[in-house]
Amino acid sequence: MCGFGVLVGSPALAGSTLDPGWSEVQLLDHLEGEMVVLEKGMAGDVEARLFPWAGGHRVRLSQSKQGIPLLASTVVVSVDSVGKIGGIQQTLMDLSVAVVEPLVPAAVAKKTARDALSSIGSGELWSPRATLIFDGRSGNPELVWRVDVSHWQPMRTWRVLVDATTGEVLSSRPTSFDATAFVYQSNPVASDLEMVSLRGLTSDKKLSGVFADAWSCDQIDDALNEWNVSCETLSRQASADDLGDFIYSADQGDEFDPFGEVQLYYHADRVARWADRRFNLGWEEPIRVVGNFAMDNAMYGDIDGDGVADLSFGITENGVNLGYDGDVVYHEYGHAMVAEVVDFNWTTADAYGLNYAPGSLNEGFADVISLLRSGDPELGEHAARAFGDEQALRDLEPDRVCPNDLVGEIHEDGQILGSFVWNLMDDEYVGARVAGDLMYGALLLLDADASWEDAGEAIYQTNEEMYAAGLTDYFTRGRIMTHLEESGIATCTRFVDLAESGHTRHLLTNWGLTGQMAAVPLGVQFYIETDENTRRVELNLSNFDGENADLGWVVYVRQGMPVGHGVQSLGETGLSLAYAEDFDWMVEGNDASVQIEVDSQSEVALDPGQTYYL
After folding, report:
1. In this model, does residue 40 exceed pLDDT 70?
2. Is the dihedral of CA 599, 602, 608, 609 positive or negative?
3. What's the pTM?
4. Rounded to an integer, what distance in angstroms lies between the CA atom of residue 377 and that of residue 423?
5. Given this model, what pLDDT does residue 183 score?
6. pLDDT tens sequence across 368-392
7. How does residue 462 score in pLDDT terms, banded at 50, 70 and 90?
């Protein structure tokens, strides 16, 4: 890495040539010399991070002023395998007028963030932490506090942005990511116990190594606080015997299970070693993996309060240890890899409803890492037992198409990306090696608010660069394009043609709100195109299985234009929700199945030739 104070954005930079034999320092020095300096210090301090990939390098630039980092769209410089700069995405921001002194103290910002989220969780894993940043997403660098907050029930970590001038909560989003679990080998369902070598150990007594560090979480006595757990205190259950081996029997379901630590270390070391070798992506310190405690999930996030994200794996109520599954570990490590490159947002609200794309891409790329490492499209055979399922929780072999297969839940929607990658891996003219290079190169081009179309464009650009670099031939390049077109990712909008998709399945949610906020919109809208000969339109809603008699559904219909939504901030939580406000008519109920008809005799008569959105 190196730092320099320049403003980027000169078209003249495109086409500049670099010497492929240069060191990283020489490469970054050259970039500095090629970039345009408008005024010394205008951009503050600019740090360049060099990411080599199969087709050359991506250089991602970040800004700061007096040690305060800027949160904004990332500037990416693409460099091909022979050192030619292909172009620049985004421009640096003028930080010369940015205010660096907050009017709101850190302690106040922490309390504000904690209070804002108190209604959606209880208990803490660790005390809130506040860091000053510039929020540049509006186009201007605004000084804000970035406050990290944790909850135990339900277990999740959050990041809240608090205005450092007014004290207002600007936004919040989760920073820990749930997984339902994955498995390929070395788990109770898919394989038998086998003798393996634990590689990379740096200790002759404990499971600590170059790439991974395994621990167990100590819980607080329920008598103290039944909702609280402290993983700020960790312990090691596994230790080497006199021969230096870690020989233990599996004791799944018990919170004292040294074998569980061995499982975690083996798989975390395996995937981290692979990522370091395959993508040259590693960490200065070994990643910490934590297990052997009660939790119906696995997560990537800070569980021990030291400010560094961990991989954590719980034991479910019915005694399934999620840390026994290699794919669970690979998926959570995938989140760590993704977060090292781009900090995807979760779910946003806008005029069309809810947008799940950033969170879905995050989950999808984590699935891709697990898929690339395991080579198996069926993920989650063992962990599925935690939820009473005898089949894999995810099967990426069936084709999925965007937007027709969008459901409105980030883990399920992310499977569209996983299925696309499995098709590449299963294609004898593409394969896992090319698929991995393609997806990593594409990931390096994305920003926090990336859409499905952005992902498609990144895949397209990376495919072209790999072909230009001689990494693929003309036929392989074409096969990749065919799979991309068939997946629908490159042209994926949030509007589904019902005539094309036919039957679709979607997840309806309720956030416990009332009034206009009670009807939480889907992540897509549907449309039906009629012609002059259309006399009737039928819509069949079936298999509504709301568990509570107070739950129901609402269908909003608008002629000629998408249903318009307002966006409402949920108090001080920093979250926002969309609600339908521009529509022609609505139908609501709680029947498990219903048929809705529109014809010339309807309250709002059918107008043949019009397009209807709902």
Report:
1. no
2. negative
3. 0.85
4. 10
5. 28
6. 999 999 999 998 888 888 888 888 8
7. very high
C-alpha 213/C-alpha 195 separation (Å) is 20
Alpha-carbon distance values, 256 to 287, 438, 469 (Å): 22, 42, 52
- How far is residue 455's CA from residue 611's CA, in Å, rounded to a whole number? 28
Token pair 């108090």 in the structure block, residue: 571
| DSSP, res 84 | B
State the DSSP string of 249-265. Answer: ---TT-S--HHHHHHHH
The pair of three-digit structure tokens given for residue 287, joined into one six-digit string: 């990643």
Exposed/middle/buried for 252, CB within 10 Å: 0-12, 13-18, 19+? middle
CA separation (Å) from 516 to 321, 466, 585?
A: 41, 49, 15
Q: Return the H-helix or E-strand segment holding 173.
A: strand 169-174
Beta bridge partners of 214: 289
As a whole number of angstroms, the distance between CA 528 and CA 613 comes to 7
Contact 552, 579 (CB under 8 A): no
What does DSSP say about strands 611-613 and 68-71: parallel, antiparallel, or unpaired? unpaired
pLDDT over 60 at 35, yes or no: no
Kindly list the distances between the CA atom of residue 193 and the CA atoms of 187, 188, 269, 289, 315, in Å, as whole numbers in the listed order: 8, 8, 18, 21, 20
CA distance 141 to 98: 6
- Judged by DSSP in three states, 594 sits in strand
How far, in Å, are 145, 168, 365 from residue 148 at the CA level? 10, 16, 24
**Token pair belonging to 395:** 């099967």
Compute the average pLDDT of residues 392-409. 91
Over residues 472-505, the pLDDT tens digits come to 999 999 999 999 999 999 999 999 888 887 778 8
Our separate counts of H helices and E strands in the chain read: 11, 29
> With bands split at pLDDT 50, 70 and 90, how would you rate the model's confidence at 128?
very high
